[in-house]
TrEMBL record:
The keyword tRNA processing belongs to this UniProt entry's keyword annotation: no
Superkingdom in the source lineage: Bacteria
Family: Belongs to the ABC transporter superfamily.
InterPro entries per UniProt: AAA+_ATPase (IPR003593), ABC_transporter-like_ATP-bd (IPR003439), ABC_transporter-like_CS (IPR017871), ABC_transporter_ATP-binding (IPR050763), P-loop_NTPase (IPR027417)
Record keywords: ATP-binding, Nucleotide-binding, Transport
Residue ranges annotated for the ABC transporter domain, each copy included: 5-234
GO molecular function: ATP binding
Name of the protein in question: ABC transporter ATP-binding protein
Family annotation (CDD domains): ABC_DR_subfamily_A (cd03230)
Gene3D superfamilies in the record: P-loop containing nucleotide triphosphate hydrolases
Organism for this UniProt entry: Roseibium porphyridii
């Protein structure tokens, strides 16, 4: 099946010569939840803004639901909902009216039942007659989502959807994303909260300095790049790692009171059995051990650091 969103060799260079996007290519499937990760200034918002038609690309192509996003802008944009980081709406507008108006901007007929359902789903129904300026920060973020959903888009972009909001709203956003996915809506989110990507996404893309450095299924990424740590609490501190243990690339920590061994759980041999045998032969005793799995955040930080070092 053809992807609902296809980006090919997309580039964006601003006046002054700064290249924000460098030959970005990406395919997103219908109904997928895709997380785009990257440090500040990596190009996440520029990529989203370009796909949504808010920023003009300087090269490449964008296909949205089979429509060329440049030549068939209106048809492509009709399929897209965007939840930006900032609140662009006038503060004196009424909550219910501004959501209904968002639907009208796409030339769609009024649908009071749909608007009511969206506002109720986002806990905004009792605020429908209030001016936007009377809303709290969290409620304004909910309103941005409601406006983006008013024209029933097939693709929803969430640009840092829970930045600066409370835990309750963050969990509500996770719930809403799950419900939209069940309805076949494609979700693309950028986030600084790695736990969001780990919680919601099926695939993860990492962008750095305007380039996509990796796109991978989340579980496969964690399988291939995730590592486990074995930490041994020593009975007596060591001044240095014994020579006969150097081959294990152990790390001596906590003022010599612990040893950390990194291993691949999917390798044919983890090396743990031979390590424990060689520890005993070297006279190194331990009183406790524990294991810890690499998180998606650990993997992300490592990828960005590796990309930076290679630049």
């Amino acid at each position: 099946m053809s992807p609902i969103l296809s980006v090919r060799d997309l580039e964006k260079t601003y006046e002054g010569g700064f290249q924000a996007l460098k030959s970005v290519s990406l395919d997103i499937s219908q109904g997928e939840v895709f997380a785009l990760l990257g440090p500040n200034g990596a190009g996440k918002t520029t990529l989203i803004s370009t796909i949504c038609g808010l920023v003009q690309p300087t090269g490449g192509s964008i296909q949205v639901g089979g429509h060329d996003a440049i030549r068939e802008y209106r048809a492509a944009r009709q399929l897209i909902g965007l939840v930006p980081q900032e609140m662009p709406t006038a503060p004196f507008e009424i909550v219910g009216d501004t959501v209904a108006m968002s639907r009208g901007l796409f030339g769609l007929k009024r649908d009071p039942a749909l608007i009511e359902r969206i506002l109720k789903d986002l806990t905004l129904w009792d605020k429908k007659d209030n001016p936007i300026m009377a809303l709290s920060g969290g409620m304004k973020r909910r309103l941005l989502v409601a406006k983006a959903l008013a024209h029933e888009p097939k693709i929803l972009f969430l640009d840092e959807p829970t930045a600066g909001v409370d835990v309750e709203l963050r969990h509500d956003m996770w719930r809403i994303v799950g419900e939209l996915k069940e309805k076949g809506v494609t979700i693309i989110l950028t986030t600084h909260y790695i736990e969001e990507a780990e919680q919601m996404a099926e695939r993860v893309g990492v962008i750095n300095k305007g380039e996509i450095i990796l796109v991978e299924e989340k579980q496969e990424l964690m399988r291939k790049l995730g590592r486990k740590l074995l930490k041994l609490s020593l009975s007596e501190p060591l001044d240095a790692i014994p020579e006969e243990l150097k081959g294990y690339e152990l790390v001596l920590e906590d003022d010599g009171t612990s040893l950390t061994y990194t291993y691949d759980t999917h390798a044919e041999r983890t090396g743990i059995t031979s390590l424990l045998t060689d520890l005993a032969s070297a006279g190194v005793r331990f009183q406790d051990l524990q294991t810890d799995q690499s998180s998606l955040e650990d993997i992300f930080v490592g990828l960005v650091r590796e990309n930076r070092d290679q630049a």
